[in-house]
From TrEMBL:
It is a multi-pass membrane protein. This is MFS transporter. It is found in: Cell membrane. The chain crosses the membrane at residues 50-71, 83-106, 118-138, 177-194, 231-254, 266-288, 300-320, 340-364, 385-403, 409-426. InterPro entries: MFS, MFS_trans_sf.
């Protein structure tokens, strides 16, 4: 924990930390403001709401699948700090487009024909934005930090991301949608200004040619990256973890409204609780591992996550049997006897999930040559996004098939068993590599 606090005082870490924190804040303020408005104000059907949530998630994820290879090459072959500034500059334009969509939705002007398409266009563009920013925020750490600081830095980046998600989610649930539109534009400008303070991070390898062929470069990138067994298992474990995450996040807004009878303010409280939990897990795993990059606690962490998801399923079943009527505000929800159990299980799901995934990201940047780090993260993003798109399609298909939202939770819990198996394979490969 001391190492983490000390990192925040470093000139080569703090500007990056603040920039990515603002990036995550803006992403989530915008996405949640959009989804909550559409779910609570436009549609009045659990199936339509779940399908819209799936479409929105799919649009955001798609650029990761298509463009991560190019993003990884650029990050390794050009100055990472310059790319960050270009990306953050583009965010100002994207958020202006998204804010226009939010404003039109607020005024009930052309909602179906213009407001929603504009909002989804901005969401897709933010997916492109995050595709190019994502490899850098991890790959730059080994370049700016000592090796023993990388796990702490990765944990702080993850914790900061979820603290930002927390702040963005709170605002999305509580401020009017038109105010959210103004805030995202302001934060985009502030993020650009902080990005200008990130120290230079020139390429560690020179003279390489960027392959602009999206499909060929993606296949080549994945094939080259997967040769290392530890990196291979880390990528597979992360990807399956985010498949579970995609299913859970798609289920969550309509589940909160239609099963837990929660208002959008309560739905925001749920996401806040989840974000705090992931932040706690992200930082605490560094304390447990004492700065060493290891998958030692991976299998038990994700098994615990699966158990808590199943517990959450039973809590939701009990809730639906004992509560009926109109949507509840925060005060009414917290007065329910089962409310502490709902929030507690969400918190435990998030803590165990954070403890599982943070060391895996550290594997990606410490087990390869620093000059290949961004491409390794990009390869991970390609596989992750493919898995998450699959998860989005699965969630949409289950909803279209009429399977109750609460029953879909059991699928997420069961999928944690596969993540635990992949985590065990990674730990075995880690021990094997240590003997050589």
């Amino acid at each position: 924990m001391l190492t983490s606090i000390q990192l925040l005082k470093k000139r080569n870490f703090l500007p990056l930390f603040v920039t990515q924190l603002l990036n995550a804040f803006n992403d989530n303020l915008y996405k949640n403001a959009m989804v909550l408005f559409v779910v609570y104000q436009v549609y009045n059907s659990a199936e339509a709401e779940a399908q819209f949530s799936a479409v929105a998630s799919g649009l955001f994820i798609l650029p990761f699948f298509l463009l991560s290879a190019l993003a990884g090459q650029l990050a390794d072959m050009r100055d990472k700090a310059k790319i960050i500034r270009w990306v953050k500059g583009a965010e100002i334009v994207i958020m202006t487009c998204g804010a226009t969509g939010l404003y039109l939705a607020w005024r009930a002007m052309l909602i179906e024909s213009l407001a929603i398409p504009l909002m989804l266009l901005a969401l897709f563009a933010m997916g492109i934005h995050s595709t190019f920013f994502g490899p850098i925020k991890y790959a730059i750490l080994p370049q700016h930090l000592d090796r023993e600081e990388v796990l702490a830095g990765t944990g702080l980046v993850e914790a900061g991301t979820y603290i930002a998600i927390l702040a963005g989610t709170i605002l999305a649930g509580w401020v009017p949608v038109e105010v959210a539109g103004i805030i995202v534009v302001i934060m985009a400008v502030v993020g650009f200004l902080t990005s200008r303070q990130v120290p230079a991070a020139p390429p560690l390898e020179t003279g390489q040619v960027i392959d602009l062929h999206v499909i060929r470069s993606s296949i080549t990138l994945i094939r080259n990256t997967m040769k290392d067994r530890e990196v291979f298992y880390a990528i597979m474990a992360i990807s399956f973890f985010w498949t579970i995450g995609a299913v859970l996040f798609i289920q969550f807004p309509p589940l909160a409204k239609n099963v837990l009878l929660a208002s959008k303010e309560v739905a925001s409280l749920f996401l806040v609780t989840f974000s705090i939990g992931v932040a706690i897990g992200s930082v605490s795993i560094n304390t447990l591992l004492k700065g060493k990059v290891s998958a030692r606690y991976g299998p038990i962490s994700v098994l615990a996550m699966g158990a808590f998801v199943v517990l959450f399923y039973f809590v939701c079943r009990l809730w639906s049997q004992n509560v009926s009527g109109d949507l509840m505000g925060v005060g009414e929800f917290l007065a329910q006897p089962l409310a502490p159990l709902v929030l507690g299980t969400l918190m435990l799901i998030a803590i165990s999930g954070g403890m599982f995934v943070v060391p895996l990201y550290a594997f990606l940047t410490t087990k390869v040559d620093p000059g290949q780090a961004a491409r390794t993260v990009a390869a991970n993003n390609i596989v992750n996004s493919g898995a998450m798109v699959g998860g989005s399609l699965l969630a949409a298909g289950l909803s279209a098939a009429g399977i109750a939202l609460v029953e879909q939770l059991l699928l997420s819990g069961g999928m944690c068993l596969i993540s635990a198996w992949l985590g065990a394979l990674l730990h075995r490969a880690e021990k094997h590599a240590a003997k050589q």
